[in-house]
Design a protein that fits this description.
The chain is α/β, with parallel strands linked by helices. The protein has helices at about 15-20, 40-50, 60-65, 75-90, 90-100, 130-135, 220-230, 235-245, and strands at about 1-5, 30, 55, 105, 110, 140-145, 150-160, 165-170, 175-180, 185, 200-205, 210-220. It is built from eight helices and twelve strands. A six-stranded mixed β-sheet has the order 3-2-1-11-12-9. The chain has a six-stranded mixed β-sheet with strand order 4-5-6-10-7-8, covered by helices on one side. β7 (about 150-160) and β8 form a beta hairpin. It binds zinc ion. Zinc ion binds near residues 8, 34, 61, 147 and 149.
């Protein structure tokens, strides 16, 4: 099975469409949450995702829009975008977000979660020291996470003393990465608001039969999204950051 693994679309339709165009054929989309928040196209992104066979888990921004999180935990720009999204969302799309699972979703030998296996909604896995304890919180071989908006691979292995260690691996682009014996936590990066200094949309194509995956980056018309955000009076900082990927 070929899976398109994506995360953090954040209501950026132009980026989502560019990824879908670039991905080629796939059997299913695995979406790691934060469909909405920040961007100008919450309904369009949810509706487009729903036209494909897919599995999607809830992210913190999805929850914030539903009123399940205290908006005081967000910075002022994120709060404004969340309140704007809340007003825009159709009842049907709101019901869709409400239906999304929060807990870990298992597909074959892969666990899907937004933040971390230990704290699915909020924890950011940015470092090996955070990834390491999280390996004990899922029972499949591999786990896909989002939330940080930065591509990352964390590998768990044993050192010569038999201790379990964790290291961060370089993220290679446009080469097939084999899935082996060692357990991995893999972040595909963000479709709609990358934060690793590269403004292009980020995603993964996974082949569950060949047991390989591939990172890809694709340019999208950032200005299309920025113009819509401007017209919607969304915060300037959120508009600007899309040009730079921060
Ligand atoms: Zn996010």
């Amino acid at each position: 099975m070929r899976c398109l693994v994506i995360s953090d679309i954040h209501a950026n339709l132009a980026a989502f469409e560019a990824v879908l165009d670039d991905a080629g054929e796939f059997d299913v989309i695995w979406c790691l949450g934060d469909m909405v928040g920040y961007g100008p196209d919450p309904n369009e992104c949810i509706e487009l995702l729903r036209t494909f066979p897919h599995v999607c888990v809830a992210g913190n921004h999805d929850w914030a829009v539903l009123g399940r999180l205290n908006l005081g935990d967000f910075n002022p720009d994120a709060q404004r975008a969340s309140l704007w999204t809340r007003q825009k969302l159709t009842p049907d799309n709101r019901a869709y977000l409400e239906s999304l699972p929060v807990s870990l979703v298992k597909e074959e030998d892969f666990t899907l979660v937004h933040g971390s296996p230990r704290q699915p909604i909020w924890e950011y896995i940015l470092y090996p020291s955070v990834a390491l304890p999280n390996f004990a919180h899922f029972d499949t071989h591999f786990c896909f996470v989002g939330h940080t908006h930065a591509p990352a691979i964390f590998r768990s292995s044993q050192n010569e003393n038999g201790q379990t260690i964790c290291e961060s691996l370089m993220v290679p682009y446009s080469s097939l990465i084999p899935l082996g014996e060692e357990r991995l936590i893999i972040n595909p990066g963000s479709v709609g608001q990358p934060r690793d200094g590269d403004a292009r949309a980020s995603y993964i194509i996974l082949d569950t039969e060949a047991l390989t995956f591939e990172y890809r980056r694709i340019r999208y018309p950032v200005e299309v999204t920025q113009t819509k955000m401007d017209e919607a009076h969304l915060p300037v900082r959120l508009i600007t950051r899309l040009s730079y990927g921060w």
